[in-house]
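[agent] plan:
  1. take the single chain provided in the ticket
  2. run structure prediction with default settings
  3. attach structure tokens to the ticket
  4. add a short note for the reviewer (M.T.)
[agent] executing step 1
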Amino acid sequence: MDRPRVIIHNLISLDGRLDGFPADAGLYYEMASRLPHQAVLTGSGTTLAAAAGQGTDLSEEDPEPLPGTAAAGLAATGDPRPLLVIVDGQGRVTRYAWLREQPFWRDVLVLCSAATPAGQLDRLRRHRVGRVVLGQDRVDLGGALRLLAQRHRVGAVRVDAGGGLNGALLRAGLADQVSIVIAPYLAATATAGPVPLIADPGCPDAVALELAAVERLRQGTCGCGTTCEINLTVTAEVVTGRHHERAKAGSVLAALGARGRRRPGSTLTQGTLRAAPSTAPGS
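[agent] step 2 finished; step 3 output follows
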């Protein structure tokens, strides 16, 4: 394979949502640390939202570098921390000093396309942020992954992104494994604009997966302070070239609750979550 192994890793609700429930970030990153990776691939939307959650607006501007400041390239590959790789063809993230100061990665690389605004490319140049232009209207994800392997010696990539980038990778046949932590919540209609695990309309109806592992994790603490019964982590390998008609109840809940039906050659697993006692007044 001329590209790194790509692992999509997300924390979701039982009904397959990325939002609308209290996320146990500590548990999510604890599981992420088990996945071997030399780069973290994310999208501009995820980057902006994560920084906003820390009170930082990455759509603002950094101060201009002082004249005569030495050029700074990407940090040496001897640093054991992963490289943060941001897909930002539209130039949405305009502030990078805060990102580069975080202790979680060794440096930042921005993926642009030929359609990225010239002002953004100039901004990245002025602030000496690692960048590469791949693709015409959109970032060429396959080309970017090959570049990571060849130029930055990346053997595995963990994807920390929303449904758009997840779907784009699956549609292009670039994802090798899906690792999800299932939180004991049904997000339902908790937010007006639900964020699904896969949100790319061009993605095949159903991507075939082969179950690799299921693990029951520690109990989690709900936002209301009560103890949830269970968190699960499910890992599955993407089966290249196999797609199926979309199931009528295509959700994690349906998959865990299914009984008795199994296609030849498939693996069926079942988990049970107990609902926490209601905390509503009068209950």
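[agent] step 4 note for reviewer: The helical segments are 25-32, 44-53, 97-101, 118-126, 141-152, 163-171, 252-257.
[agent] ticket updated
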